[in-house]
Specification:
The protein has 401 residues and is of the alpha/beta class. The chain is built from 15 helices and eleven strands. The chain has two domains: 2-127, Orthogonal Bundle (N-utilizing Substance Protein B Homolog, Chain A), CATH 1.10.940.10; 211-399, Rossmann fold. Helix 12 links the parallel strand 6 (250-255) and strand 7 (277-280). The longest helix is centred in the first third of the chain and has 25 residues, at 100-124.
Length: 401
């Protein structure tokens, strides 16, 4: 397994340099799930790990050595399923390919961490929340102001848990797994099982989807025979839901990014939704809508991902006010453009996987005065500390009067 740790160290080294998307750096190998767990746990706990490591390493090195130290420490401190001997021996073995001196440093630090682990974890609990929960200070401040200190801490603690893979059957079959509490037809996949190994995967018997996303589809109130647009469609789970509700109508899936377009196409092919029309287009531009008016439009817009930081732990370290402003500007352009292609008696659902008010209710409030007769008929919000799901927001808009 040293090869897995070597790959994880390589990904972490690149991530520390670029803060790019780590999932795009991973190769599709039999050990991918383990590599992803190593990488995501380390990224998730970065602030806490750096605070602990400074007790043992006077001058933190950069590059691959820092990545290896973080990787090894994450296993010792936060990955209970990894035996200590494996965490030390395999990580040190991976480090030997860098240099013998690095391997010796890593061996010494990791063994001290094992000896002092309980004391260190107790001390960590006494640290300020950005270190204790390993979140950027700006997010901790925002959430404390928005939700209160205790709710903020619950949200941060939720972000630091390992997310489940949740599947939702499409053909009525009930898989032999535990049902997600409070959400019928959503099932938790046990750790260690690859999706591709599941009965019915190749036949498109299910999709991977958190139950928090169901609210957006429910608000669409789809009837068969409609003309429906999913304007930011990848990876395609919601598109599949809409197409199944609209077998005799027209369902259009639009996606801007070519790599995500391929992912969308793969999802639709696997689930046998051949009738869906795919458009390579930018939802902010009127030309992409090709002059079509729709009965229903779903805008699952690009967002900060602040409601899904346990699934996207790297997103917390890219968060900034500047990036939020850039995202909200894009969201507003998408919303204003799409509303022009909604039929007078249609419904548009705007949704995010964010918990930030600027991306959610404030967007709705800002657009209503611009379109005479436009009303918000219903909103749904999922907050992890109260719903036990990923964070999500959805609002249904319609022209009335």
């Amino acid at each position: 397994m040293s090869d897995s740790r070597r790959e994880a160290a390589f990904i972490l080294t690149r991530w520390l340099e670029t803060y790019d998307f780590p999932d795009r750096m991973m190769t599709d190998t039999p050990n991918r799930a383990f590599v992803q767990n190593l990488v995501y746990t380390t990224i998730r706990r970065k602030n806490s790990l750096l605070w602990i490591l400074q007790k043992f390493v006077k001058h933190m090195p950069k590059g691959e050595v820092e990545a290896l130290l973080l990787l090894g420490s994450a296993q010792i401190l936060f990955m209970k399923d990894v035996p200590d001997h494996a965490a030390v021996n395999e990580t040190v073995e991976a480090a030997k390919r860098t240099s013998l001196s690095v391997a010796q440093l890593l061996n010494a630090v990791l063994r001290r961490l094992i000896t002092e682990r309980e004391t260190l974890l107790v001390e960590l609990e006494q640290q300020p929340d950005p270190i204790r929960f390993s979140h950027p200070e700006i997010l901790v401040q925002r959430w404390s102001k928005q939700f209160g200190t205790e709710a903020c801490r619950k949200l941060c603690a939720w972000d630091n848990t390992s997310p489940e893979t949740i599947i939702s059957p499409l053909d009525g079959r009930k898989p032999p797994y535990e049902e997600y509490p409070g959400y019928p037809n959503y099932y938790v996949l046990p750790h260690g099982i690859r999706l591709e190994q599941l009965d019915g995967f190749n036949e498109g018997a299910f999709i991977v989807q958190d139950p928090a996303t169901s609210g957006a589809v429910d608000l669409m109130k789809v009837s068969d025979g409609m003309t429906i647009l999913d304007a930011c469609a990848a990876p395609g789970g919601k598109t599949v839901r809409l197409a199944l509700l609209n077998p005799n109508g027209l369902t259009v899936a639009m996606e801007r990014h070519e790599d995500r377009l391929a992912q969308l196409n793969s999802t639709l092919l696997r689930t046998r939704q051949h009738q869906v029309r795919i458009i390579h287009g930018d939802a902010t531009t009127a030309e992409s809508y090709q002059g079509v008016k729709f009965d229903r439009i779903l805008l699952d817009v690009p967002c900060s991902n602040s409601g899904v930081l346990r699934r996207r732990p790297d997103a917390r370290w890219r968060w900034s006010e500047r990036r939020l402003k850039k995202l909200t500007d894009m969201q507003r352009r998408i919303l204003e453009t799409a509303l022009k292609f909604l039929k007078p008696d249609g419904i548009l659902v705007y949704s995010t996987c964010s918990v930030e008010p600027e991306e959610n209710q404030q967007q709705i409030d800002s657009v209503l005065p611009l379109f005479p007769g436009l009303c918000c008929i219903e909103t749904r919000i999922h907050l992890p500390f109260s719903t036990g799901t990923d964070g999500a927001f959805a609002a249904a808009l319609a022209f009335q009067g």
